[in-house]
Amino acid sequence: MYRIGICDDDKELCSGLEEQIYQIAKELSVKIEVEVWCSGESILNDLQNGTRLDLIFLDIELVQKNGISVGKFIRSEMDDIQTHIVYISAKQNYAMQLFKVQPLDFLVKPVSEEQIKEVLIRSIRQKQSLKSCFEYQKGSAVFRIPTKDIAYFMSMDKKIRLVTRNGEDEFYGKLKSIMEELSDDFMMIHQSYIVNQLYVSEYAYDCVKMSDGAILNISKPYRKEIRSKLKQNRRAEIKDEL
Prior knowledge:
Elements: E1 2-7, H1 11-28, E2 32-37, H2 40-48, E3 55-59, H3 67-77, E4 84-89, H4 95-98, E5 105-108, H5 113-130, E6 133-138, E7 141-146, E8 150-156, E9 159-164, E10 167-172, H6 175-179, E11 186-190, E12 193-196, E13 200-203, E14 207-210, E15 215-217, H7 220-241
Parallel strand pairs: 1-2, 1-3, 3-4, 4-5
Antiparallel strand pairs: 6-7, 8-9, 8-12, 9-10, 11-12, 13-14, 14-15
């Protein structure tokens, strides 16, 4: 499911944009879910309460909390570099103010259906490409690493320890948000651990042993789900062998 947000204080524009997005998604055979907000305050409140989006069409000239403030909150306060932001405005003179927010695009009103379709296709393609890589940010630098090289993630307070086949690194982030960006090769086995199944050398009822020798506990809430996933994977392997 591709999650798309629209935030604009023009309700008529929101309604028309939502309708166009659903029609384009139908043409592309993409399953989507669209949510609409009419103020910066309302979308910020929902984002703070756990709403996650793949793509946001965000009006710049919102009252009080404008689109630039919302974008900066997403990037800086939420440490979210994955959500694609497409700014919409009746004016064109915002280039320098948008630099730090790193938007996917900037569209000038009135927005055409062709522009929406092009942005949607580009966003989906980039997200699909990123599934094979993981991006994280340290300061102003963004790092990208192939997911096949990642062994596991470990949460330590507000920091994430990233262990790969070639070494380790640390960055600020939230484990649950990271899990949403990963492929099915990864499993959350504990509120503090995400592991790549390809690097698990041994499984037990309450722990796993990683290829680097680390023993990571499987907490009770995850044990049933993990056993079920392992059985499914084993059945798939047997089917492939046949």
